[in-house]
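User: Could you check the structure of this?
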Amino acid sequence: MNHSMNAAENTLTSRVKDWVVDSVGSDASITSVQRLHGGTASSMHNVTLRNAQGIQNVVLRQIDNAEWLSEEPDAALHEAESLKIALSADIPTPEIIAWDETGSICGIPAVLMTKLAGTVDLQPVSRSHWLSGLAQTLTRIHAVEADGFKWNYFTYKELSALEIPSWSRHPELWPIAFDIVKGPRPHVKPCFIHRDYHPANVLWTGDRVSGVVDWANACRGPRGVDVGHCRVDLAQLFDVATADAFLCAYVSYAGEAFSYDPYWDLVAFMDILFGPPTVYSGWAAFGITGLTDEMMERRLDEYLLSLVKRVTG
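Assistant: Sure, the predicted structure tokens are below.
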């Protein structure tokens, strides 16, 4: 095997490397392995191989998060099936190469997929153009039918057990929000949703979206959950105005297929609340510096206030 492999490859066991080679083609050999930034619930690597056709790059996800696997033991199968459906979207998405659902081959569950061109851009030259690209791309995902998909949307938080967080400077807002999310769920036609749609999962080449990655949580569900998840992310990364501009762009692209309801924004907001707000660790890998946990608290308060105002007028 080629001796130009870098030190990062030591993080892959020989059985994993053998599985990658066998999955791509037995005439291939691994030339390098690079840890990918941004992953917080699994280990992601870019694996470069050489074969008779030339150089090929693939992405390997190793699901080493015990909590995730305890909740979803078929996580590798889930992502593999998600990637198959995602191919129907009018956007570039990774193609599944192989998966090890139980870890019987690799030691832990693993997913192997093709690598997309492009890079994450969290500091766009034109924010309005960037938001337009994010919004249009999401409508293309939502255009995919998912009637036969076995994974369905559910809330990550137990809505009946929500409590006012101690960090918030506006405790009076929370009971209003809790009453809404605990109330009747709006009736919507489900479609294929990404379930973790945010700017760090969207790739760009120049000023154009070149693909969407990280389909491990995709499911059949309401469009508003994806929109809301991206909005709360944008509110933390930038401000409420940016989150609102994304919503306006999405509404314009979606047309009659989408009817906005702040219920989904509030549910998506509650879904991210696991302890005091902190700066998302993945952002630093893409050049975002200067954010603090205190800023996240303040921006989430401001965003919640904007959502309550949408409901109460």
